Amino acid sequence: MSDAATRWRSALAEWEIPPAILAAAPESPWQFPIGLFEKRADRAVHRRTPSNEAALQWLPEGGAVIDVGCGAGAASLPLADRTGRLIGVDMSTDFLSEFRARAERLVEHVVTVEGPWPDVAAGVEVADVVVCANVAYNVPDLAGFALAMTEHARRRVVLELTLHHPMSALNDLWLRFHGVRRPDRPTADDCEEVLRAAGLEPRRTDWVPSDPLAGLERGEMVAWTRRRLCLTLDRDPEVEAAIMPWLAGGDGSASPPVRPVVTFDWAGRAS
Q1: Relative to the CA of 96, which of 109, 177, 230, 235 has its CA 20 to 30 Å away?
Q2: DSSP 3-state assignment of 68?
């Protein structure tokens, strides 16, 4: 394992929630509401991001795409008008069901594979392009994860992640509610070091999304934040006061801070 890969693994381990706080949490702080992924996927069909454009540069007409950690399909559904075969891989049965329901309306051939990548990679066919969005910060062995995608892509791999860890936006709130200082690494810069140390040559594109948490209403944002902070339901008024700048939308919507995003894409190695 390279020094960069070791640093990545160690930095991710620092995000572990203190055991006493986690034990007292009434709900799991790690689960996103499935409705958020559904809304993202539905909106993604009507717009393209730099990650989508990077994939489309290498995707032939009628080509095959693997979406690793597909959720409801936000990373791959924007490619549907050029895709003839779409393979979704995810650990969640519920997400795969939502992915299939959307993909089958747009793509002729849809395959779903349940399980963690790269554990299930041996059972996944190769494709022209492999895409993966908002998964890397959940992957301790990032080099092995990326290399498995590389071996499944005939043309290109496209990996998207936020510039900073997605939970870093809550660091001030962890200090406020728990007196706990949270880490500030790893970052996309560290990800790039891991990829290069693994022998890959990624192209990097930095960009800013217009609506990273689009679809969350005011009450949903308060509840999501409270769960992430391992707080009980009765703390909602305090949480709402703490994130008031995010809740300025006159239509009842939430507008959390925009998080810069990085897209890496590199050559595949599958024959």
Answers
A1: 230
A2: strand
